[in-house]
Design brief:
The complex is a heterodimer of chains A (about 350) and B (about 625). With about 350 residues, chain A is of the alpha/beta class. In chain A, the strands form two sheets. In chain A, strands 2-1-3-4-6-5-11-7 form an eight-stranded mixed β-sheet, sandwiched between helices. Chain A has a three-stranded antiparallel β-sheet with strand order 8-9-10. The N and C termini of chain A lie far apart (about 65 Å). Chain B folds into three domains: about 220 residues, 3-Layer(aba) Sandwich (Pyruvate-ferredoxin Oxidoreductase, domain 3), CATH 3.40.920.10; about 190 residues, Thiamin diphosphate (ThDP)-binding fold, Pyr/PP domains (Rossmann fold, 3-Layer(aba) Sandwich); about 100 residues, Rossmann fold, CATH 3.40.50. Chain B has 21 helices and 22 strands. In chain B, helix 4 packs across helix 8, helix 9 crosses helix 10 and helix 18 crosses helix 21. Chain B is globular, with a radius of gyration of 27 Å. The chains are: A alpha/beta (about 350), B alpha/beta (about 625). Strand 2 of chain A pairs parallel with strand 17 of chain B. The structure holds iron/sulfur cluster. The site of iron/sulfur cluster has 11 residues of chain A, from loops.
Chain lengths: ~350, ~625
């Protein structure tokens, strides 16, 4: 696999092909993961980052096979810990573009703690969560995003776990960039991934991903051209939150809640519809949008939040710089000689 | 205090003394102890200290479980341990007296703050009658001194409140002890001025209390003699007092400075290891990045990430934390990347007794992982030795591309001793090479030491993938080939076993063959060394070896063992090294185990030696 990769390729000349490792991809035929791999490898040459400066880190699960298929530095680690490992890598090597590819089990069940803390710290990681709402690699048990009542091998009588909304969880943890898209909508995925790649701090992207084997059709209503206009809400910054085949449905604030209203009914006009603001200082409204669930609400797609905040690694570097400015570059002999000393003659 | 001229008291010369300061956490006895050891150090005496504090941060005052202590042994020569039994106990309340009295030498000195012996405090300490007056302390030399009142009287004009005045009694006690042990107070006064520079009133009060304590001891007729340590003749040079955790931190910075490679620490606070993270967090003007992780697992995982990125990376923990890091240790081992995991051991199992010392994680460090997962394990044997051990840990990690577990102990990490500060130029060299040549690069190709190459992300033309799945012995690509797996397991084992080639011949103290060989590891060093010395002087045919490396064991150890009739292994666990030696060398080891959260005493080992030869 390494044979033709021994020479550094100038950035400009790189193509999608240069980012494909050439290893046999072992996902099930028809798995939504293929689309994500294709969009990411397509995006990478466009970012102007030398290939050797990318690192992909993953944990365990179907999605975590990802690093093997991209021709960059890669670490396929242990279940749930990809974010903690990527955190150490990014803090010690801020020069690298570090991507974490994870799943709903890996990031939100066994790795939940690392997920909220990475997001809270705003470490400059690109976190791509492939949400298929099921455990695929272990062959079909419910996950933290499986819907209530879902029957799986470990919930034969129906799932009684309240599901997480990954986006809401990220926003609750203080995400500075949170977005959602779906495997079937390549154009939207491409646009969101590109924005995520350029975001400073943690960029969190949830991609709804169809598992053809264990949860096939989970997102059909959101992908089908026939239904999707009514089931999803595509958010655009500065534009009213309007959806529906007739573009006559919208989201309106009602007290501390949000509600779906129909423009033209009951005196509702477009002016009543909430205008999306990705840059709002408080993530409350974005959080509410993140909790929308079918069938009562449309499922929002696009960027929920995008705000500027210094990344953890930049603050960490600043600490070192100011320590050096204040105390001077450390000298080992002086350090050993410090503390409570005395001399015996 | 009387104004009559002070009568010169006879001075008794000492070779060694053990003093223990005890009181409530709020009595400041840790400070009295530390300051007293500083004064002793300046006189050139050797010393070892042992702080002993409860797990509760602020236990209710006067209770038996809230007692905090600080023990120091100092002497004319090198001091190996903080001492078996105190010659002197300075106790600030009934609970402190009650919990510590059984340890004090028969006929030892008790200096007791009688003001704290109120009915309430006596009841809290579960004393039926006042021990200061009921004659129960007759076997000791009791000095009941109204320390609180004397301190308060000295500070009537200090302008401080009652509570603040009460806090000054630790300096009163310090002054008293400095007088009794013939130490001058001038340097202490400058130290107080510096320490409380921002609170001049408090500084003045503490100085007054210190002087009052000194003057009281000088004037009172209570003490028949003062004591003076015989003069010491230590190796000339610059010394500092150092705890094991500080020494570890400095050793890691030294590894980074010598190799020119940035240091990364990713850790979660845990007693008694936290000070290493704290120390390194304060050294960012060196090439140090510190990261306080969200949990123990993130501690080691961030360390793995940083090591993958090319840093000298370490994580620090104690037993329960090491248990949490288990799976990630396996990842570090299979990735074959260099890093150091420090386990400052404490009494277990589970949460155990966090503030008490123990050597009971040896088997966890050696074997506590799934699959065949060899990891080198080394141990430090004293506070200052942590410095050398830290350097050695990184030397092995980098040379062999492997995680290394460094075992220290609460009793080492938080204890202090004098350290002859080394000259940086004399420290061992450490060379770190990253591979940058893509020609013929295979991620799992190995050098003569079976180490694979360290390649930093960012190196052009060498993009590759590593992971926790078994991998091809050359390319590193995922492989579940049966034979390849056997080759990989055997190679990882052979690599770690081969580290023993680096070790110098084991240092055997005593005769090259004889009746008894004592083998130790870790903090038992001091007690064993002293017990061995005593037994040798008594004409016993006994030798001793102390192990730095626990995995791999030194290759000459089997041969050494075979030259003695019996082998004794003292440990503060139920026999973990014994088990290892029996399994490895088929030798009938005699165990000496103590598991009380306390160090082994010299006499305990000495008595056992006498039983065996
Ligand atoms: S099991 Fe599901 S998620 Fe996993 S590879 Fe197959 S289709 Fe994709």
């Amino acid at each position: 696999m390494m044979t033709d990769m021994t020479v550094a390729t100038p950035v400009q000349a790189l193509t999608k092909k240069d980012f494909e490792s050439g290893l046999d991809v072992r996902w099930c035929p028809g798995c939504g993961d293929y689309a994500v791999l294709s969009q990411i490898t397509k995006l990478m040459p466009k970012l102007g980052i030398p290939r050797e400066n990318f690192a992909f880190v993953s944990g365990i699960g179907c999605s975590s096979r990802f690093p093997y298929y991209v021709q960059t530095y890669g670490l396929h680690t242990i279940h749930g810990r990809a974010l903690a490992i990527a955190t150490g890598l990014k803090i010690s090597r801020p020069d690298l573009s570090v991507w974490v590819v994870t799943g709903d089990g890996d990031a939100l069940a066994i790795g939940g703690n690392h997920f909220i803390h990475a997001v809270r710290r705003n470490i400059g990681l690109k976190v791509i969560l492939l949400n298929n709402r099921i455990y695929g690699l272990t062959k079909g048990q419910y996950s933290p995003t499986s819907e209530l009542g879902k029957k799986t091998k470990t919930s034969p009588l129906g799932n009684i776990d309240q599901p997480f909304s990954p986006v809401a969880l990220a926003l609750g943890a203080g995400a500075t960039f949170a977005a959602r898209c779906i495997d079937g909508d390549q154009a939207m995925m491409a646009a969101i991934l590109e924005r995520a790649a350029k975001h400073e701090g943690t960029a969190f992207v949830e991609i709804l991903q169809n598992c053809v084997v264990f949860n096939d059709g989970a997102f059909d209503a959101l992908s089908d051209k026939a239904t999707r206009d009514d089931t999803r809400l595509v958010m655009e910054h500065g534009k009213p939150l309007i959806f529906g085949k007739e573009r006559n449905k919208g989201i309106r604030l009602s007290g501390m809640d949000m509600e779906v209203v129909t423009i033209g009914e009951n005196g509702v006009t477009e002016a009543d519809i909430l205008v999306h603001n990705e840059n709002a200082a408080h993530s409350g409204l974005a959080f509410s949008l993140g909790q929308f669930e079918s069938p009562d609400f449309p499922v929002p797609f696009g960027v929920f939040r995008d705000v500027d905040k210094p990344s953890y690694e930049s603050l960490s570097q600043q600490l070192s710089e100011s320590a050096r400015a204040a105390k001077g570059r450390g000298d080992l002999q002086r350090l050993l000689n410090s503390g409570e000393t005395w001399t015996i003659k | 205090m009387s104004n009559e001229p002070v009568k010169a008291r006879p001075v008794e010369e000492l070779d060694s003394v053990v003093i223990r300061f005890v009181g409530d956490s709020g009595d400041g006895m840790q400070l009295t102890g530390t300051e007293f050891s500083k004064a002793v150090a300046k006189a050139g005496h050797g010393f070892t200290t042992h702080p002993d504090y409860p797990s509760e941060i602020r236990a209710p005052t006067g209770t038996l479980y809230g007692v905090s202590g600080y023990q120091i042994q100092y002497s004319t020569g090198r001091v190996f341990t903080s001492g078996d039994a105190p010659d002197v106990l300075v106790a600030m309340n009934p609970a402190a007296l009650k919990t510590n009295l059984p340890d004090v030498k028969h006929g030892g000195i008790l200096i007791v703050n009688s003001s704290a012996f109120t009915p309430g405090n006596l009841e809290k300490a579960k004393y039926a009658s006042n021990p200061l007056t009921d004659g129960s302390l007759q076997g000791h030399r009791l000095y009941a001194i109204d320390i609180s009142t004397l301190t308060a009287n000295a500070l009537t004009d200090s302008g401080l409140g009652k509570k603040e005045v009460g806090m000054c009694k630790n300096y009163f006690s310090l002054g008293l002890m400095m007088c009794l042990y013939s130490r001058p107070v001038d340097k202490e006064i400058t130290d107080i001025e510096k320490k409380f520079a921002k609170k001049p009133k408090v500084a003045a009060a503490n100085i007054t209390a210190l002087r009052a304590g000194y003057a009281y001891a000088e004037a009172t007729e209570m003490f028949a003699v003062s004591y003076q340590m015989r003069e010491s003749t230590p190796v000339p040079g610059k010394y500092r007092s150092i705890t094991g955790n500080t020494a570890s931190a400095l050793g890691f910075v030294a590894a980074s400075e010598i190799s020119g490679v940035p240091l990364f620490i990713g850790s979660y606070p845990i007693t008694p290891a936290t000070e290493i993270l704290q120390e390194l967090s304060n050294l960012k003007h060196y090439n140090v990045t510190s990261f306080q992780a969200e949990d123990e697992i993130a501690g080691i995982c961030s360390t793995i990430g940083a090591s993958y990125g090319g840093a000298l990376a370490l994580t620090t923990t104690s037993g329960p934390g090491l248990a949490l890091k288990t799976e990630a240790l396996g990842l570090a081992a299979i990735l074959e990347i260099p890093m150091v995991i420090v386990d400052v051991q404490r009494a277990g199992p589970c949460t155990g007794i966090p503030t008490k010392t123990e050597q009971s994680d040896l088997l966890q460090a050696l074997y506590g992982r799934n699959g065949e997962c060899p990891i080198p394990v080394i141990a430090a044997n004293s506070p200052s030795d942590c410095f050398d051990a830290a350097l050695e840990a990184f030397r092995i990690a980098v040379k062999y591309m492997t995680p290394v577990i460094l075992l220290t102990e609460g009793g080492i990490g938080q204890a202090a001793e004098p350290w002859l500060i080394p000259d940086v130029a004399s420290l061992p060299k450490m060379e770190v090479k990253y591979r940058t040549d893509p020609n013929g690069f295979q991620p799992y190709a190995r050098d003569g030491n079976l180490a694979r190459a360290w390649v930093r992300p960012g190196t052009p033309g060498m993009e590759h993938r590593l992971g926790g799945l078994e991998k091809d012995a050359l390319t590193g690509n995922i492989s579940s080939e049966p034979l390849n797996h056997q080759i990989m397991c055997e190679t990882r084992a052979a690599k770690v076993a081969g580290i023993a080639r680096d070790f110098p011949p084991s240092k055997v103290e005593g005769p090259a063959k004889g009746d008894l060989l004592v083998i130790g590891w870790g903090s038992t060093y001091g007690s064993i060394a002293q017990a061995w010395q005593k037994a040798s002087t008594a004409g016993k045919s006994v030798a001793f070896v102390h192990l730095r490396h626990l995995n791999p064991l030194p290759s000459d150890l089997g041969d050494i063992i075979s030259r003695y009739k019996k082998v004794l292994v003292p440990e503060t666990n139920l026999g973990q090294l014994s088990k290892l030696l029996r399994e490895r060398y088929l030798v009938d080891v005699v165990q000496l185990n103590k598991i009380q959260g306390k160090p082994l005493k010299v006499t305990e080992i000495y008595d056992r030696i006498l039983e065996l030869c």
